[in-house]
Design brief:
Elements: E1 10-13, H1 20-33, H2 43-55, E2 63-69, E3 75-85, E4 90-97, H3 106-121, E5 126-132, H4 136-145, E6 148-159, E7 162-172, H5 173-179
Parallel strand pairs: 4-5
Antiparallel strand pairs: 1-2, 2-3, 3-4, 5-7, 6-7
Helix pairs in contact: 1-2
GO cellular component, one term: cytoplasm
InterPro entries: Acyl_CoA_acyltransferase (IPR016181), GNAT_dom (IPR000182), Ribosomal_N-acetyltransferase (IPR051908)
Protein name: GNAT family N-acetyltransferase
Length: 189
């Protein structure tokens, strides 16, 4: 039996201090997707942030994990659970994959693993995602995974000299379970 956190193409693992160079590349890649244009962070700033992430304990059910390709051992992205509200039973998540690793199934596999954990192990009822309307690749990924568009915040973000819409998506635990059944049989009792 393999680890819960190991799939067919990837494994999810904690952030390590040496991941800083990959995280720095992802920051540049996200800027190109229209996430946000921020002043550049120094290499030392990325090193310090990666070291801090590596030492951080999860805050409740909020955490960030590295996405590592099984065939190369390279960090190809990151996935996180955010804004977890156990009382309401909902959380948000985020995923990023480096530009040179996109369209290889890494993001989809990482998201399915994360959602399986949050729904089946942590008992959450709903996952929410926010995607910029101009990010067609991310919108297509979410629709393939079973997310439903729940709303659109018009002209919500300002980027590259103009306003853009933000699409709100969600998936419920039972919808996810129908589309992505467990890959291993339940433990015998």
């Amino acid at each position: 039996m393999t680890s819960f956190w190991t799939g067919t193409r990837i494994r999810l693992r904690g952030i390590e201090p040496d991941d800083w160079t990959a995280l720095m590349r992802f920051a540049v890649d996200e800027e190109r997707l229209g996430d946000a244009v921020r002043p550049p962070r120094s290499a030392e700033g990325h090193r310090a942030w990666a070291k801090e992430q590596a030492a951080a304990e999860p805050e409740g059910d909020c955490f960030r994990l590295a996405i590592e390709a099984l065939d190369t051992g390279e960090m190809v992205g990151a996935v996180s659970a955010n804004q977890a509200d156990p009382q309401a039973g909902r959380f948000e998540y985020g995923v990023t994959v480096g530009a040179d690793h996109r369209r290889k199934g890494y993001a989809a596999e990482a998201v399915v693993m994360l959602l399986r954990f949050m729904f089946a192990e942590r008992r959450y009822h709903k996952c929410e995602a926010r995607v910029f309307a101009h990010n067609q690749g991310s919108l297509a990924l979410h629709h393939r995974l079973g997310f439903v568009e729940e709303g659109r915040l018009r002209d919500h973000v300002f980027l590259a000299g103009r306003h853009h819409d933000l699409v709100l998506l969600g998936i419920l635990a039972d919808e996810f379970a129908r589309l992505h059944p467990p890959t291993e049989p339940p433990l015998d009792t």
